[in-house]
Amino acid sequence: MKTLLKNAREQKGLKTREVAQLLGIDQALVSKFESGTRKPTREQVIKLASLLEIDLETIMVAWLKEKILYEIGQDEFALKALLVAEQEIRYQSKSSKKKISSTLQKILDEIDILKIKLDGFRQFDSYRIAQALELEYTFESNRIEGNTMTLRETDLVINEGLTISGKSMREHLEVINHQEAIAYIKDLMQRNSSINEREVLSIHNLILRGIQPEDAGRYRKVQVMIQGSSHMPPQPFLVAKEMEDFFIWYETNKSSLHPIVLAAEMHERLVTIHPFIDGNGRTSRLVMNLILLQNGYIIANIKGDYESRMKYYQTLETAQTKNNKEDFLLFIAQIEKESLERYLLIIGQ
């Protein structure tokens, strides 16, 4: 594993000092990881994988191999113990594997068929169609949060640079900021950037820029309550740790979950932590859609009308208070399916 770490760091053009700084550990410790004289913790391995863009499975296998060799490699019964352990691990893995309901699996299968069809007609992608759909996304995402701009007014603000009479400065900024945040996640998608703390804080910074500059791109320092919800977000002193776990969960699960489930889970987990004073919903939906775009899907646009908004909030509430995410996963999957169907219809397929 030591060679893997050193090669990845050098490929990224980083010094051991810079890696240490980004990990929040001592520089000497990074050097010891690379020389093999110290073993990183599991959490540090996951962080290193994200930072150095090493495939998580590759680095975890290397780390576990060295851990096994160090613990039992010299023991005469090591091979027999490993054979017995293999049986045990296979059984535990099979029994603990998270099951997807047949209803959700059916929608995921339908989505995958639609995506195959979409992949075959990518040549029909149009900048103007994408622009129109992104405009709708900005309109709907802001409408969920109470912005009163119409779709036409949203268009005039973004594409004509007009000021709408009777609408507040905040509403204008929400429109402009959200559109810039979409451009940002598209850039991240094209660069195939991993989702990490820096990117999520940058998305949030764009959302609140000029509206609440002192809170833009910063975790909250006060306790908050979610209006109309019985879910109580974690205390402010727990937010940084919860967010650290959030990114570790992503790195651990991003290769094993269906992209729709992964995107929905990341949305639900982020909005449940509620790490910001304001803009949590918009940021969570942007993170969800970044994952969908990275995996070749299209933006899942949750509507802001009363019925859609209530269903969205109710499924989130169930996930947050009853530890049952099924309804929310189904809701997001259905939104993505409808978005794909509509997109294929627009391009005439």
Automatic annotation (TrEMBL):
Residues the entry annotates as binding ATP: 278-285, 312-313
Domain HTH cro/C1-type, first and last residues per copy: 5-59
SMART domains attached to this UniProt entry: HTH_XRE
Residue numbers marked as site, Important for autoinhibition of adenylyltransferase activity: 145
Record's keyword annotation contains Transport: no
Active site: 274
Segments forming domain Fido: 195-334
Residues making up the signal peptide according to the UniProt record: none
Keywords: ATP-binding, Nucleotide-binding
GO molecular function, one term: ATP binding
Entries under SUPFAM superfamilies matching the protein: Fic-like, lambda repressor-like DNA-binding domains
Keyword Ligase set for record: no
Residues that span the membrane, as ranges: none
Gene3D superfamilies reported in the protein's UniProt record: Fido-like domain, lambda repressor-like DNA-binding domains
Official protein name in the record: Fic family protein
Lineage, highest ranks first: Bacteria, Pseudomonadati, Bacteroidota, Flavobacteriia, Flavobacteriales
